[in-house]
Design a protein that fits this description.
alpha/beta, ABC transporter transmembrane region fold, Rossmann fold, 4-stranded antiparallel β-sheet, 13% strand, binds adenosine-5'-triphosphate
């Protein structure tokens, strides 16, 4: 059972104290039941002793204190477990490759981090209570068996049937619950579409209607499945209550037929049966949570292991150092996107390209020709399925991949700008000021406490801030994927004629995906891509000859 394994692995230090306190709390509730029984018998004979009252008060205190400890510890442990699972998931995402993360999709990752962790937070404390109530049942069972074996067989035969029926029903509902989760995911997908594409949705009534209809249908499906399962729960709940009354009936009508002493056996047995009802009800309530928790854990395990598989393929990536290269290249590099069944979709290669320090290389090509895919390979974000990656003429070893990636500052077409300037070390305010001025962003944004004052800016302005971060990072290789496409003509000019040559003069390897043919003359080398293949249109030799002529 995943749940048990998780608890044993994650919170071994509290397991023993939890078990002891749960047993103590169970002992206190059983003592309470026995005291009620004793007190009623004493009351029937005249008066109740003060000792019983004192014991009663002590048992209640013990019960309250131990129950509180169990609940608080279990809830805190649940949060600890969730924190560790989340951190593990973050680490797995971080260490995985881009293709695996894209294949999983945002919706699945979000739902694991929200819905599944919520299920765990809700159910883990209840499951501990379930264990505690099971201990109460054991104590009650011993007491009942001591009173009357017949009463014990009736009560516990009944309890086992009640919990088993509930568990079997929940197992049968497993598929329905999985369908409900799938429908919930479709709702999440629709919500992402609506929020990410809010402008597009707002701009078209028919698009908005289509989207809302789809989300509505998914939500209605989730409602239909959940209502159906809840209707069944309703019936089961009513049946369970009816069974409890039947149990009391058995105690008062059947037990007297087999027990000799009515006052000493039937009354306490009926009382005990009444106390059995609570724990059995709790167990019946908690049992479905086992299925829910197992499903949530299975989903989180599946996601983590999918990501880990990608990590294992590239095990030990961050182990070896790699000094800043002056020359990088792809040699006969091959890569294919694959669908969920592993069938190849778009392929690139074999690609052979090289990039030199102190040179500007442009990569051109039509939409969908494979430029961004080539950049993913060159930057080590997607794994090569053939060929190799060279740094200073030497193949980059698997153990050097992270060190290799760390030499890049890349601004991809879909660049994400964080407000905080992560990983740039100590920030020199004067240098930041100068950079903001150079990027013509003075007065619009400033940097304070390691963060931009705002990133609510235009797309072009955000890309300028990304360039500022790249400047601060001062890495030897710079990659710009259609960076200038979002800039105005004036700043395009600044980019191609001032910023790129400045990077080149500082000995950087500059790689630029661009459609701006007006500035093709600025490149030392131009590669053109077409349907996943590459050809060199201008080498550094031809560029030098062009300059001379
Ligand atoms: N994550 C992905 N999964 C499957 N196929 C993909 C994925 N990303 C891109 N592709 C496919 O790879 C092909 C090349 O895409 P790529 O983004 O590399 O082209 P590009 O030259 O950069 O295009 P553009 O100029 O439009 O940005 C496309 O036909 C696209 O269908």
């Amino acid at each position: 059972m995943r749940m048990w394994r998780l608890v044993v692995e994650e919170i071994p230090q509290n397991l023993r104290s939890l078990a002891w306190t749960a047993a103590l709390s169970a002992l206190a509730s059983t003592t309470l039941m026995w005291l009620v029984d004793e007190a009623s018998q004493q009351a029937a004979k005249g008066s109740v002793s003060e000792r019983l009252v004192l014991l009663f008060a002590l048992s209640i205190t013990l019960f309250a204190v131990s129950d509180n400890y169990v609940l608080v510890t279990a809830s805190q442990d649940a949060e600890n477990i969730i924190h560790r699972l989340r951190t593990r998931l973050f680490d797995a995402v971080r260490a995985s490759d881009l293709v695996s993360v894209e294949r999983l999709g945002r919706t699945r990752l979000y739902s694991a981090l929200t819905q599944d962790t919520q299920t765990l937070a809700r159910s883990l404390p209840f499951l501990v209570i379930g264990v505690q109530q099971a201990i109460v049942l054991v104590f009650l069972g011993v007491y009942l068996a001591w009173l009357s074996v017949a009463a014990f067989v009736m009560a516990f035969g009944f309890a086992i049937v009640a919990v088993a029926v509930r568990y079997a029903r929940m197992k049968a509902l497993g598929q329905a619950m999985r369908d409900a989760v799938a429908a919930e995911m479709a709702v999440f997908d629709g919500l992402s579409d609506m929020l990410d594409g809010f402008k597009e949705v707002r701009m078209s009534t028919t698009r908005a209607e289509g989207l809302v209809a789809d989300v509505g249908a998914a939500s209605a499906e989730a409602r239909r499945i959940k209502s159906r399962t809840k209707a069944q729960w309703g019936w089961e709940f009513a049946l369970l209550q009816a069974m409890f009354y039947t149990l009391i009936g058995l105690m008062v009508f059947l037990v007297p037929l087999v027990a000799k002493d009515y006052a000493d056996v039937v009354v306490p047995a009926t009382m005990t049966a009444l106390f059995v009802v609570g724990p059995v009800g709790t167990l019946a309530h908690v049992t479905p949570m086992v299925t829910e928790t197992e499903m949530a854990l299975a989903n989180m395990d599946d996601i983590t292991s999918q990501l880990r598989r990608a990590v294992e393929l590239r095990a030990g990536e961050s182990a070896l150092p790699l000094s800043a290269p002056r020359h990088i290249a792809l040699q006969d590099a091959v890569f294919s996107y694959a669908d969920s069944k592993g069938r190849p979709l778009f392929s690139v290669g074999p690609l052979t390209l090289s990039f030199q320090a102190g040179e500007i290389t442009f990569v051109t090509g039509g939409n969908g020709s494979g430029k961004s895919t080539m950049l993913r390979l060159l930057t080590g974000l997607a794994p090569l399925s053939g060929g190799q990656m060279l740094a200073d003429g030497v193949p980059v070893a698997p153990g050097q991949m992270q060190a290799y990636r760390d030499h890049f500052s890349a601004i991809f077409a879909d660049h994400h700008l964080s407000r905080r300037l992560y990983g740039v070390g100590a920030i020199d305010p004067l240098r930041v000021e100068a950079l903001l001025e150079r990027l013509e962003m003075t007065g619009k944004v400033h940097v304070a406490d390691g963060a931009f004052s705002t990133i609510d800016l235009s797309t072009g302005q955000r890309k300028r801030l990304a360039l500022l971060v790249a400047e601060l990072e001062d890495k030897p290789i710079l990659v710009f994927d259609e960076w200038a496409a979002d800039q105005d003509p004036h700043f395009r000019h600044v980019f191609y004629e001032e910023l790129l040559p400045a990077f080149k003069a500082r000995g950087k390897i500059v790689i630029c995906v661009t459609h701006d043919d007006r500035w093709f003359g600025m490149a030392d080398r131009i590669y053109h891509m077409n349907e996943g293949q590459v050809m060199e249109q201008r080498s550094s030799v031809t560029a030098a000859m062009e300059l001379q002529s």
